[in-house]
């Protein structure tokens, strides 16, 4: 007899890992379909990217290229395997930024506010082991849990703290999914590298493979299939999906897996692509796409790095191999009446470029603003151009909004002032390329109560279906101005909790 799982989770990343582990814990028979493979501790993302599928995308100036990047990372654990672990909660304003977006934007308000997500943020911080901000984050929406002490600032971070304070700003320690002390079975961080782009071999980084999926290996009710690409959700009657067509990437064979419930958690670009590929007689334009909303509202954050060379060496030597990527952040310009639209964003310490490693005079920060959700910014498929797997070419059609570029320019100026206060002799801005694809992916299957203006209901259920949920950043009507993963995980936990309450399908 063909096995019919209780639930099929598509993607084993930040969102899929949370949903799968919660449902396994609740006794569901769970299948996880993951396109990527396990990556060993010590692997670098840069070595894997050449093997990844690309997308057609626009450059910063709007020209098309075939080198778009539709991933965070394609592997067990998804982007978390390689992430820097920056784990900030979204700010209260991020849940309703309606007063801060341009008139041509899609409505940015979430269908619920911060307080609805708060308990799920608490869960995520406890499950992953998020370090404290020391109670110093002035914009934090609720007090810190203080599970693990804040990380000590790096030499770069210490310089930013001193400079920020001299300008009357309130720098604070970045909450990280990187253990600052032993956490359960995990050791404290050994400072091997800067964490980002690197699969932590020690277990100190709280990626979902390490914290959630790995410990479930051997559970009889969890099946993790790697190297299997979800191609198309198959409706066997209107509004009900009976199977998922998959492609085994090693053999090129096709198979259909069966489940009572399907949870799509493939990243906001790939989740939308899967729904768009799921055309049928009941859904000729793709599943959930009756009103042409699937793929629209793609947000990737407007972000740019600012780098400075200081007159003096930093106060202590940099850790030779790395030192954590981000230890200090500033949100003083998050809500700032002088910033265009009144909504600024985050200034975050970031690790040096490879060529600057070991140079004790280089400071670097990232400026991040949440981008306007635009109907014209979208994921689409080109059915006339097939990729190597015979599937329609993935298209990332994204142009930065002028207002977002103005907001980013404002934040850049504030970052330059900070660098100058730290003793910079030379401040340079690095080129931007986020329209090609970013690690911050949101908004392509927006949740809302109006089926004509959204793809999913507030619980992630694809409108007019009874057994398909979207669980990742695709749900987010507005991306917020902080790194997204903790919010994606809180959302995924909220969704998993609601599935458990509903009971097995
Ligand atoms: C180098 C780097 C540093 C980062 N640093 C931070 C940080 O410090 N803080 C932060 O908040 N965020 C960070 N991020 C972003 C973070 O990784 C993402 O926000 C997060 O992983 C997104 O979660 P997700 O579940 O939506 O998607 P993912 O984690 O990308 O998981 C999706 C999974 O689905 C799989 N998949 C895709 N399509 C299919 C398909 N058709 N069939 C089967 N499987 C499929 C993918 O292989 C992947 O494993 C970073 C990302 C990178 C790459």
UniProtKB/TrEMBL annotation:
The keyword Disulfide bond does not apply. It comes from the Bacteria. PANTHER family: PYRANOSE 2-OXIDASE (PTHR42784). InterPro entries: FAD/NAD-bd_sf, GMC_OxRdtase_N, GMC_OxRtase_C, P2Ox-like. Residues 154-299 form the Glucose-methanol-choline oxidoreductase N-terminal domain. One of its GO terms (molecular function) is oxidoreductase activity, acting on CH-OH group of donors. Belongs to the GMC oxidoreductase family. Gene3D superfamilies: FAD/NAD(P)-binding domain. This is Paromamine 6'-oxidase / 6'''-hydroxyneomycin C oxidase / 2'-deamino-2'-hydroxyparomamine 6'-oxidase. Keywords: FAD, Flavoprotein, Oxidoreductase. Its cofactor is FAD. Residues 374-492 form the Glucose-methanol-choline oxidoreductase C-terminal domain.
